Amino acid sequence: MVELNNMSIEKLSPAMFIGVSGEDIISFGSGQPDLPPPERVYKILPSYRYFKYGLIQGQLNLREALAKQYPKSTPENFVITNGASEALDLTLRAITLIKSKKKNKVLLPRPYYYTYPRLVKYAGMEPVYADLIDGRIDLDDFKKKIKDCKAVIINSPSNPTGRVESIETLKLIEKLTANLGTYVLSDEVYKDLIYVRENYLIKGPHVVTINSFSKTYAMCGLRIGYLWSLDQKLVNNIIEMKTCTSMNTNILGQEMAYEATKTPRSFIKKQVEIWEQRRDLIYEGLSGMGLDLWKPEGAFYVLPKIKNPTNFVWNMFKKYKVIAYPGNWFGVNDRVRFSYALDIDKIKEGLKRVRKYLGTAGL
Fold this sequence. Notes:
Elements: E1 26-27, H1 39-43, H2 60-67, E2 78-82, H3 83-96, E3 103-110, H4 116-122, E4 126-133, E5 136-137, H5 139-146, E6 149-155, H6 167-180, E7 183-187, E8 207-212, E9 224-228, H7 232-243, H8 251-260, H9 265-288, E10 301-302, H10 309-320, E11 322-323, E12 325-326, E13 336-339, H11 344-361
Helix pairs in contact: 3-7, 9-11
């Protein structure tokens, strides 16, 4: 059991909640699937014995399996990383080093995943924000701001909104960025968790697709992510950088990820049906309380408007043992993010507590 000690409302941060558990705590916080990984993933554990250094780029068998999932690919187009976070970090830093007439700016649609601005700054670049309309990219605003940016991060399905960009919008972004020579970092860690259509893979000469085994296969703690790009020079630069930072990614985790690639599509389909059922429950529950929110089309998050979000998050945890994340972590000050990556009974109980708090607080 992990408890939060000496926590203050002024210092609320994701680090205070990630991994937190305890008696009677309902966590709508971290986006960590509670569903089990495919059984074949852990069947290798009793017999696995290889614990030497691995290839910096990633084990060949895993890269060969991934190459079958992406068009015009070879294993050389991939780098296996410590989760999607390292893939984003290395890619941004590699782009920073590329000589260009463009300024070192990165366009971020807002609301954004809370690590994006910091990763951009850690890479020595400047974040530029394009606000969304109803949770989706405003193309007019996007077109104005992308011209001066070296790169853009696209996240569809989105964390924290749960929204999915239209294929038409993604194709326009493809065309626009290709003409401008702008790098596109397409964060697709939720690509298999879409309720409205199949995933659309963004393509282009300067596109880097980011993915991981954390969400689709419920393997978060193993930290196996990857990046894919047909820009081989950029890929090679990332490998060189990784050689001097984390070196190889977890070898056992990569072997387990390789086993996950053999999982039939029916497994993922069944998981999506469960996520969709939970989506409906939490969306209808929060809507029934009079809260304004977008209906998620993918991933497992909702982002309702709530008065005094920081006070809400603080009081819900301290008084009702419910964890949620304030919207200001994601670039919006009037919302709260709920993850519905927990079972039905816990969602129902959590909603009861939220309803009780809102009634008590008069919100």
